[in-house]
Amino acid sequence: MSLFSSYNPKPHVVLFPFMSKGHIIPLLHLARLLLDHRATVTLFTTPANRPYIVQSLSDDDITIIDLPFPGNIPGIPPGIESTDKLPSMSLFVSFARATKLMQPNFENVLQKLPHVTCIISDQFLHWTLESATKFGIPSLGFNGMSAYSSAICQDAVGLLPLHESPDEPFTLTSFPWIKVTRNDFVYPFTERHPSGPLFDFITDINIALSNSYGLLVNSFYELEPQFMDYLNRESKPKAFCVGPLCLTRLPKMEPVLHNKCRWIQWLDQKLAQGNPVLYVAFGSQAEISSKQLTEIAGGLEESKVSFLWVVRKSGTELGEEFEDRIQERGMVVKEWVDQKQILEHEIVQGFLSHCGWNSVLESICSEVPILAWPMMAEQHLNAKMVVEEIKIGLRVERRNGIIQAESLKNKVKELMEGENGNEVRKKVKEVAEAARNSIKDGGSSFRTLGQLIEEIHLHN
Ligand SMILES: O=c1ccn([C@@H]2O[C@H](COP(=O)(O)OP(=O)(O)O[C@H]3O[C@H](CO)[C@@H](O)[C@H](O)[C@H]3O)[C@@H](O)[C@H]2O)c(=O)[nH]1
């Protein structure tokens, strides 16, 4: 039963996702959830991101408004409106900072909209808080991270300067069972005294967030209670667990299940043959060197395990001989795939993942254990959580900055065929069940979202 059936007018929520697939996808799921809670939804984006959003949502009830993405940004080629299209992730801060130029247009449209109950925007669009404040609208931030990563970052920040070597483990004050090194963080937090453009950007985000109404966390309370409690005890604003958002079905996605693409047909064949498949993918924006790509190819080939590998950007460097050699045992895909659909295929029994938070949640919800290979952003912390905290995965071993074929082969075999793999496979099934329960009517995330909107709606 929706908590809003007795309210009139309905709550009206404005959503503003950051222009990056890993940030848009969860907010599309949230849009759908809000409709289930009888809210109306207006979603802001830019023209180049609109087709993906329209293709994913079929709800006429969601109004999509595009604002032009700012042009003439040094280093950003014209027409690039999403981080996965950036020539290099080193342009991230310029790209994210450029979004502030959308503020006047955003406010022009915002003031003409029917009464807005609240704005939920990505933390990277921290300037939207100023707009919300100007019009007296409560604003909630979304950061796409786990409570574990947010809490550890917060707890560790004051300890970073005390440790000379980036490899030196130190114990967290609030979580004495957790040891981290500066290398578990992303640059500039790998430095003793972090500074620079990314640091300044993150500082602006944290200031805006602490002045907003709340933080929406794409997770479920039962997965990380100590870390959610820490956020609500030690920092502002209040954090609300409303996920895993990936368990929400988008109506447009459903027909895809019946219209099978070649990799799903291939997975069907593997199912018929009884050959478990390792899914290999590193999200929407990882940058992998040619040398590393060759080591991955070697490790997968030598493992003799069946695999489906989604290679983005640099896939051509593998050469045709690789695909000839692996023939039926492996498939390399260079297109954009429906990752959830792949993970949900019953023959997929392991995921070699960069541990972007959406991938971790999608893997959990599909009962697939992870072989963690963190690359950037907060992924090292996600990998730590996966392996040490919730114990649903194993981790690759890096030597001299690279994962070697031989080592990867051994880890792949351990995950897919070994005793440790069985343990984590058993554990992920338990965690998946708790995830499903949290979003059911009456579950923790379902209640939290309902109560939150009711609270803001009454407040207005
Ligand atoms: O071919 C593809 C590639 C990706 N995806 C989806 O794209 C999303 C990717 O998100 P994620 O796994 O989180 O990876 P990134 O795109 O790398 O995500 C960025 O954003 C995340 C959320 O803030 C962070 O946790 C990551 O560290 C950051 O790199 C997931 O929903 C995937 O299912 C597809 O559906 N098809």
From TrEMBL:
Molecular functions per Gene Ontology: glycosyltransferase activity
Keywords: Glycosyltransferase, Transferase
PROSITE patterns xref list: UDPGT (PS00375)
Pfam hit, one: UDPGT
Gene3D superfamilies (alphabetical): Glycogen Phosphorylase B
InterPro entries cross-referenced by the UniProt entry: UDP_glucos_trans, UDP_glycos_trans_CS
Lineage: superkingdom: Eukaryota
Enzyme Commission numbers on file: 2.4.1.-
Keyword Repeat set for record: no
Family listed: Belongs to the UDP-glycosyltransferase family.
UniProt protein name: Glycosyltransferase
Organism the protein comes from: Forsythia ovata
Upper lineage: Eukaryota, Viridiplantae, Streptophyta, Embryophyta, Tracheophyta
